[in-house]
Structures
1.
Amino acid sequence: MTQIIESLSELDGRYDVLFCDLWGCVHDGRKVYPAAAEALRAYRARGGIVVLMTNAPRPEFSVARHLERLGATEDMRDAIVSSGDSALLSVNAGDWGRRVFHIGAAKDEAFFETAQVERVSLDEADSVIVTGLVDDHAETPDDYADQLAAARARGLRLLSANPDIHVDVGERRLWCAGGLAQAYEALGGETEAYGKPHAPIYALGRRLAAEAAGREIDDSRILCVGDGVGTDIAGAAAQGLDALFVSGGLAASVCGEDPEHPVPSRLKAFLDANHAAPQYTIGRLR
């Protein structure tokens, strides 16, 4: 059974490094959660290392700019690692060819600032790279049925630069690149992703944590923090890392009436239904 805690400080001394999710934990896409920001600052003040680990499809420098716009200060973190960073390593190694068809919004253009590929039409492409929906406020994966069917007919592989299915922006739940990958898989298409819960982003996170600490960090001293059972919690389990589930994020509506305080019976039912077993749970990061 997961241990419900009220504050990150209850785990003082147990972990040297946090791999901390952003959306739903540190901010909601519009504003930073003040209590979460203060918890991360306090953790660093006590000697801990914070690696912000996000499934955003954009590289680190773009994520940093977004955090700055939201009011997140640099003293909350030691490093940032994104799904976009992990995906770019594979793309620039030539794993996806040099001519790609892109599905995504203008806000994701930063991905292609360092991607060593040419964007072409679907008929000319070696593969498909999805950073998100073109208009995630109005569209769903159904709007891409024809494009996905055409890509499948050509046998193209699809790279999802963001494995998340959904993200909450304020009070709205929006589709992410993972939703398109899910639809492509339903057609029998081949997809791949490098963000959480997949191994590449954790390898990058470990490297950044070691650089910040000036030494290698044992896995037993790393705690993964996140609100996605299929990404943050599943990824931690696959990597043999402990996890702190933030129940007041994506799962807030099913874990109780108050996002700050999950109802134990409802939390257990949710975790059991999703085959998730985080070591700890907190309503909201604080």
Note: The radius of gyration is 19 Å.
2.
Amino acid sequence: MTLISKQNAIRFIVPLLSAAMVLGSAGCGAGSSSGADGKTDPKALTQETIQPGTLTIATDNPCYTPWFIDNKPESGQGFESAMAYAVSAKMGFPKDKVRWTRTTYASAIAPGSKQFDMNIQEFTISPERRNAVDFSSEYYKPTLAVLVRGDSKYAQAKSISDLKGAAIGATVASDAYVFAKRRIKDDIKVFDDNVALAQAVDSKQIDALVISTVIAVNMRKTHQVTDGKVVGQLAGSTNENGIGIVLPKGSKLTKAASKAVDELRRDGTVRRLQDRWLKEYTTDVPVIH
């Protein structure tokens, strides 16, 4: 091939390569959920769910007031129900594109595949749990309380040390179990869920239960424990990591869920929802040391 024919060939090949690169770049852009500015495309995000176009949110069964009202998470009534819908709307899922399902607390934070996109049931955030699941940003910092029967000899407990001799229970894998074991006594009995835990106190299988303050007050108000009494909030039990929404490990929705929670905190929505749904369940409960 002569020098002139080589130059002509180069002139022909270079435009072809440039066109191929342009087409390749366009193809890559079409398959991404991010725009040119790197921000997540809400429409693309809705296709990342287990049921494309629908956000599947899980919670416990039953779920309790004031987190949910009348065991109906789909109603939007109750702090976590309202939070779930506020977050989902920020993520591009209106209420009619949200589907609810039920799971236990323990299974939701266990390693493995999940049948939900998000799970909201007072999950406290911890480094250990992050090994198995993802979390959104925190939306509430809970405390723990002790609930007993009104006729229990521990109903007049004034300090944590007064509970040392009690048979105490908590739900399996919960922060209440970890705290009670560390601060009250080593021998803490475990139960699968809150229903079994309340029944154990009511039947005198155990003397006291440790659970979030909000749930403890609700158990008393709804007579899940006969003549129940909330002895007090446990000093030092505020979880500074807070509670967050659980997502499957490596979920493509995690960043968007955290961004939604952060925006709702900044615009005052989180505080307004806390004041509406949680205030009466925390202000009048004494603290025991």
Note: The two ends are 93 Å apart (CA to CA).
3.
Amino acid sequence: MDTMKYLLLMGLLISVSLVGYGQSSVVIYYNGTVVAHLDNESVFHLIGDNITNLKVLGTKFNLTGGYLYFYNSTKVTVIYDANFPKGVIQGSEPYNVTFHVIVPSSYTFAYISPSPLSLETSGSLYNLTLSGSSLDVLYSAESQSSSGFGKEDLVILLALILSDVVVGSLLGYWYMRSRRKAGPESTSEQSVSSSEDEDKEEAELTTQELNDRDLMVLESFKNGARTLSDAVRVTGLPKSTVYRRIKKLVKMGYLLEKRERGKIWYEVANNQDSSSE
């Protein structure tokens, strides 16, 4: 029986990998196995606690504070085992990925965020697919008739997903028409400007001096911000920019990175509190 479950799991993981080829995806199995297929990503946040049997294929890496930093970010596969609280799967990445949560089809879902892209059945397993930079899934091993999502709930959920797809398609069509009206010249100018901004920011991140953006991020934490989302909201800077600035401030000793049960937050170092006084 265990052998059949193992073969079924491996077949499902292979099919998920083929569907997600060309984009980053993270497969999380309910017993703690995590398989990440990353495409052109230089960092990966290990989801779950008490990481064991870690394997990284395709590149050398450094492990720092729960993050893997890759030397070669073209095609990387990360495999490991982790512990999750019973009935809870939570995680986050510094960029958008496709999450696949694999649980037995006898389980029921009590909470799912963000809204799922699909819910498929493969043998005796559910494959719940979500897209975003984080996920929160609560489930239980109870029968579907007692609580959670039943058949009617799934029909409603899939109808909502379909409506979201239609609305998203219309918005995408409107956006593409707007870009065509803007003309190729403005697109080219934006591309050049974006490239120059990226080069400038890369140079700023390698220096040991703090510039205006570094100070804005640091000040947000002195004024009560605790997480990456808090700092983005307070500073108004892009999420990727704030993320890089936080890593620079942690490396230089201005901020301390804290982790507990898969949650990450930051605190101002004690020497910075005393110097600000």
Note: The first helix runs from residue 2 to 19.
4.
Amino acid sequence: MNITRRALPALGLLAAGARGATAQGIFPDRVVRMIVPFPAGGATDAVARAVGREFQTSWGQPVVPENRPGANGTIAGQLIARSPADGYTLGLVAIGHAINPFMYANIPYDTDRDFTPIGLLATYPLAVLVPGASPIRDIEGLIHLAKTRATPLTYASGGNGSSQHLATALFANMAGINLVQVPYRGGAPALMDTVAGNVDLIVTLPPVPMIQSGMMRALAVTSRQRLSWLPDVPTLAEAGLPRYESVAWYGLVGPAGMPPDLLRQISEATVRAVASQTLRNALAPQGGEPASSTPEEFVAFLQAERRRYEVIMAAGSITPD
């Protein structure tokens, strides 16, 4: 897939324009809805509500989250793609937005042509975790066991195409080992079954209290730098995979065809929201970091994410549904 060529339609949407009134009048003059691709109550929902509150403060109009979970974000994506490009329907997106074309043979929209990328919102480092009772003490030991044990090690994920799935598949590919995915309906049950010892490992948001109590053991983190709250846990790059990086993230999109002045206005509001204490407070419980970007930078980020995981698709580590 030539990702750069396919992204050209999205790049064409990003021409600069004057801030202020749109061709349709002052924006917004009514309720704005924010489509969220996961159920209420999780990290994604918390980010959407925090950003929505900041938008509401900036614009003086309600911003209402609308949860449309299912199919790794494609249900929400279809709703966003089919909405008018007037700014009154925005959507929170995660890794599925970038890689769903790899995961599903038939998705009801074109990821490049049917959306306007607005900006990155946040990133979340993940950790390679094993149960506290596991004999695995470090990444070297994990790789050795995976290569020598008669039966493959298993790993839990929040479902096909989830950040847990992709991060672990990338790790296995780069380490040259075979790991068998056990998908769950969400990250919470995946984590709890790992704690119980029903699967061998999970790569997910680091549950600090579980790590501190000894219920889970963190072998490495997936970010480029160590985490301040887990300073003794190495990065996977330090543990022997120098090119490895994989983080969970959230961004904001709208339907294709948003006028340049409207895109500029919403982009600037997004940058202010990302810099707010409201969003920092929403991210802190699970170790998230604000990650601001321009629309152009978000397009480049999406391209890079596709290239990162296209490698494991080509290797057969992940197969389309």
Note: Residues 119 and 294 are 6 Å apart (CA to CA).
